[in-house]
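[#protein-structures] MJ: dropping Probable cytochrome P450 305a1 here for a structure pass
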Amino acid sequence: MSTSVLIVIIILLGAVSFFFRKKKNYPPGPLPWPIVGNLPLLRSLSRKFGGQDHALLELSCKYGSDLVALRVGSNDLIAVSGQEAIQQVLHNEEYDGRPWNEFINLRNFGHKNGITFNDGPNWREMRAWLVKNLRVLGLGRRQMLDLMTQELNDILEKIKDGGVRNLSKITAPAVINVLWTLTTGKKIDDTQRMLYFIDLMERRSQAFDMTGGILSALPWIKYIAPEKSGYNLLTQVNTEFKRFFMETIEEHKKNYTGKEQDDLINVFFKEMYSEANSDGLFNENELLIIMMDLFIAGITTTRTTLNFLFLNMIVNQDVQERLHQELDKVVGFGRSPDLNDRKRLPYTEAVLTESQRMCLVTPLIGPRRVLRETKLSGYTIPQESTMILNLTSIHMNPEYYSEPDIFKPERFLQNGVYVPDKNLILFGEGKRRCPGEILARCAIFLLFSGVMQRYRLLPDPGEEPPTLVCLPGLTISPKPYDALLIPRQAAPSSVDLPN
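AK: finished. C-alpha cells for Probable cytochrome P450 305a1:
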C-alpha cells in the first residue's frame, strides 16, 4: 500500500472518529460517511420503500427506537416516530425553532421572515397578527363561505356535461381564488395567469424533500453541480414566485391611500406605514414571504388532498356508492351541500378523514430546530439539532388502525355517528398549527361533497385504472390521472344507510 493511500485512509478514519463519534445518550442510527453522511442511505431506502417517510419508519424498526439519529451532510438530523414522542415535540417550546440552511436561505431570499421558516419573538408577533387579520377579513366566516360556494358553482358549470376530466386542474383555481381574494381583494380572472401559478407550485412541490434536498446537506455543491443539485431549479422557481407576487404588491402600493382595509395586503400596508412600525418589522420583504407561506403551504396541500379524495372514490367504488346514498338522503338534489350539513353527513366526514389518514399530503412535518438541550424518549437531544416528525408512524400504525393499508371509513363511525380520532395529526398541533386550517377544511368538504353529489366517478376508459402510487417530494401526490364523470340522477330519499 502506498504512503499516499495510507494517509488518505488515516485522514478518513480520523474524520469519521472526530465528526461522527457517538454522543453521550444520543439516539441510535446508522454510521454516517464522511462529507455526505447518511444521505445516500436515506435516498436508497426512500426509493426502495416508496418515500422518505417509509424509509425513516424502516430505520425506526431496525434500531428499535422512536428516535433515529442521522447525519445529512454536515447537519445532525433526528427522525421522530410514535405518538408520544411526536406530541412532545409539537407542544414543547424547546422544539419551536426552525433551522436555517441553504435550501431555506434561497427560498426566503436570504431573509428570516414570514411564518413558516422563522422563529423567535418576531415570528410569534407576525403569526398572531396574520391569524387575527385573516379572521377579520373573513376567514372562517360568511364571506369565505360565500366565495367558496361561488367557486363550487363555477366548477359544476364547467363539468355539467360530465365526460373525462382532470379534476385536479378544475378544482385548484377554486381554492386559489378564495385565498387570493382574501389576500388581494379580487380573483385571478386571467386563465393563463392562473394556469401559470398552478404550474409554478407543482414544479416546486415535486422538486424537493423535507430535508431540503442535497442543497441543505451539501450547500457547496451548488458551485459544482448547479443543475443536478436543484440549485438552478430552486433559484428559477423562487424568482418566478417573487415576480408573480410583487406585481400584485406593486399594484396595491400605487393605489394605496391609507383608507383601504379590504384585503390582507392593504391591512399590512397600514401597519407598514404606521409610526408604530419603528423597528421595521412590517416591510415589503416580510409581506412577500408571508404570501409565499400562505399559498405554497395552503393551496398545494388542499388541492392535493382533494386529488387523493377523488382518486380514492375511483379506486373504492363500494365506498363511493355508500357516500352517494348518504348525500342523496340528507342533501338531495335541490341544492348543493353546505357546512350546516356536515354533522348530518357522518359517512362523508369519515371518508374525508380516512383519505387523509392514508394519503396525508405532508407525511413528514417540520423541520424543527432544538432551541436548547433537552430530553426526549430518554435520549439527550443537543441544542441546534434538527427534528423531523414522521406522521406515517402514527397514521399507518396497525395498533391504532387495523389493516391500515385498506380504505375503511367505517373505522371512524360508532353506531352511525362520526367520532373524531385523537391520534390523527392532519394540520399540525401546538404553536405551529396550520393557520389556514379553517379554509382547508371548508374547501375540502364543500368541493368534494359538491362534486360527488352530482357525479359518479369512474376510471378513464381509455387508460389503465389509476392506483394510489404516490409521487414523492415536499408533499406527496398521486400520479396524474383523469376521471370519467357520469352525471347522476336523483335517487329515492328512502334509502337506508348501514352503520
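MJ: nice. The chain has one domain: 96-360+391-487.
AK: one more thing. Residues 44 and 382 are 27 Å apart (CA to CA).
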